[in-house]
Design goal:
The protein is mostly helical. It is built from ten helices and no strands. Among the domains are: about 70 residues; about 50 residues, no CATH class. This is Retrovirus-related Pol polyprotein from transposon TNT 1-94.
Length: about 230
């Protein structure tokens, strides 16, 4: 009979973590995933400290280093050639990509203010873009309320969502949550798509009617000519 501890270790060894390799974008989101994985593998302390000289620490530190490398793209790794531990890599990445300067905050806020949802962009893609920028602001230490996020989501919407925006704005404040707004917008998108499909079918039907009418007119003209002959 296999000891329970061995089963747990075997199961842990088989766990796969699928995280896109960091290529310089969305650092805050990537860090959140990486930290959770290192915690799950009991290697999180090596994100901030070097190993001591004990055999177990050195071995665990090497595992942490190998794991960290697997989550980095070649483009990023090139800039980390002098870093040879998990902690040194993580600190270098944070100092490079986790900027908290006032200029960076202003630039992100400008991007949010200028954001426009294009027709070919799905609502989910729009929500993801807003959340990505919001997470960048949060990583700079900016506190953002759900109401702020709602404003950032609603502002860039095109006129076809005006009625939905009005319905949301006329709700009592205690009924308006981020989840409520997201749900309403996804529903509105589905209704708009359905309406476009119906309009397309209607236009196609009208086109068919026009063709048949033209054919009937041609037949009528042809019949009249034959009678005259």
């Amino acid at each position: 009979m296999v000891p329970l501890a061995s089963i747990v270790l075997e199961m842990d060894a088989e766990l796969k973590y699928y995280v896109d390799q960091f290529d310089g974008a969305n650092f805050a989101v990537w860090v959140r995933r990486i930290e959770s994985i290192f915690v799950a593998k009991n290697l999180d302390k090596f994100l901030s400290k070097e190993a001591d000289e004990t055999k177990d620490e050195v071995s665990a530190s090497k595992k942490a280093y190998a794991l960290m490398l697997s989550f980095l793209s070649e483009k990023v790794l090139v800039s980390l050639s002098d870093e040879n531990t998990c902690a040194s890599i993580f600190q270098k990445l944070k100092s490079t990509f986790l900027r908290d300067g006032a200029v960076n905050k202003i630039l992100i806020r400008k991007r949010l203010a200028k954001l426009k949802k294009k027709k070919e962009v799905s609502m989910q893609e729009h929500l993801n873009e807003v959340n990505g920028l919001v997470n960048q602001l949060k990583s700079c230490g900016v506190k953002i309320s759900d109401m702020d996020i709602i404003v950032y989501i609603l502002m860039p919407l095109p006129p076809e969502y005006d009625s939905t925006k009005s319905a949301i704005e006329n709700q009592l404040s205690e009924h308006v949550s981020l989840q409520f707004v997201v749900s309403r917008l996804l529903d509105a998108e589905a209704l708009l798509k359905e309406r476009r499909v119906s309009e397309t079918k209607s236009e196609s039907s009208n086109d068919v009617d026009v063709v048949f009418r033209q054919i009937n007119e041609l037949w009528s003209v042809s019949s009249a000519i034959k009678r005259d002959i």
